[in-house]
Amino acid sequence: MALPRFLKPIEQCFFILRKPPAMLAVPDAFLLLPPGKTWGNLPFTAFNLTDQDFDMGESALAPSGPDELIVDFELVSIPLGSRLTPSDLTMQHVLGTSPATTNFRVLPSSNFALVVDDTTNQWKAVNRSSPEHVDDVLLTMVSAPGVIVLVRPDIAGTYQMLVTVVDACNSTVQAITNVTVLCSHAPVARLKDGTAGEQPWRQKAAMAEVSETYALGWWPSHVLDATPSFLEDTDEQFLAQYTAARDARLAAAAAAAAAALGVPPAVTKRPEPGNVPPPPPPTFRPLSSLDEWKQWTTAPRWNMPFRESDGVLYTWKLMDAPHGSNAWRRQFKKGVNDTGNPVRFDPSGSLFLHSVAPEADPTPLVVDSLNYVASFQPDVVGTYGFKLDLSNTCYDVVVNFEVSFVCNAAPKPRLSATPQSTGMCLARQEV
Fold first, then answer.
1. C-alpha dihedral over 329, 331, 334, 337, to 10 degrees?
2. Which superkingdom does the taxonomy of this entry point to (predicted)?
């Protein structure tokens, strides 16, 4: 480790004299994020850190002499797609918070104090006031166990922390801790019957929408309903697929790195068929039913307008509109020269009364777009494209669908028209 520090002379670092540091790996953790929760801080520690040399005083006669340790934390593996960097680690300890560093030094102290003794050789070995030591965190063997390095995940997956301890003889001990975080449930999107598909003209309902613009009435607001959507348990099958995909990505990355260095690919010897029984296939048991998976109940509340009953954020979005709609003009046309091609006639040849909206009219929008039940009122006849997005902290699922506001019958030529429950259509009346 290329850091200025106290080092023992070579004669004190013989194998039979030195007392190397020791540390245990923290058991791997498996956490499930409950509905309505979001990522909190994951704590990592130098678990059970010890060094026998710290039992010796400055005047100890043992030739090994008192020691100094440097403890370093490094996030060595993150899920594919995570944007975490070393600067996202935060170290907390008994003397405060040190966001600028991910390592600390353990120096001798007198009478098992929390604060290091500035009279020791280790303290004096480097210039503690120099710029390269301005962020040094100096602790004792008493205060070192209180150090916690915090990592806040940004996506679901496994986060791997490597803890390295180096003493004054360059003896090194390392430990790796894995923490896997997943959401306990994944949303499954479903539309209520009647949300997608054709919405024929119904004169009786349309008469309630009669206005200066729509003299013959208009379609009432169409309900966009996702109440049949539900939550699905994250189970062993999901975990097996996730793990296989992760391992494949890691293997591909290792192979690419080896190829770049000109290293021949590793050859894996496969067992003879029949000699080794295949592992049992993963079951559909929810991860929440397995002992090693724990609910992350202390995670903070998700700061999104999710539905309280399932912890899911519902988002409706208009994705396409007929070329005569103001939604198309203002959101989807490709440029000033794109005039579009509004559909002006129905299949029977009747001319639609409202195939092109006046440009001064408002843009049709999805109302209550962040609710599981929203609504939309068209401004012209035709087909509109929508997207329903269901998401929680971990997962996102999308359903694309269309709603067509169509005429169900062409008008018959006559001098007058009497509104009926069916039969009338938004087409120009011919006499």
1. 30
2. Eukaryota
